[in-house]
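INTERNAL AUDIT FORM
Audit reference: QA-55
Scope: verify that the stored structure record matches its stored sequence.
Auditor: D.O.
Record contents follow.
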Amino acid sequence: MRTGGCHCGAVRYAVDGPLREVIYCHCTQCRKQSGHFVAATRCEAAALTVTGGENLTWYAASPEARRGFCRHCGSLLFWRREGGQGMSIMAGGFDLPSGLAASHHIFAADKGDYYEICDSLPVYQGRD
């Protein structure tokens, strides 16, 4: 069981099941909506329990996906593909120790021009 939540504590969550390794996404949407690149893991939606869900606001980031954030403090928490069975969760929202590890970078072709990807993880110019 791993737990986490937003900055102000209005939204909390628990995951009772496996989590995917963290993927760093450098796409334009992630950069614009988070202020940098996104680090996210993923679980099956059925494994996620949210308390304070009334404090979540969902934004249709594209016709394919929505992003969930706290309506009070603005913390970006979730990303979900329309009709998908999984829920991506922003890695930074987990309580420590998270036990998470990163696996690779995606959409590196869209990354900001103000930083370099300097770790040894695989880098994909598009989705993968």
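Auditor finding: record pair retrieved intact. DSSP finds one helix and ten strands in the chain.
Action required: none
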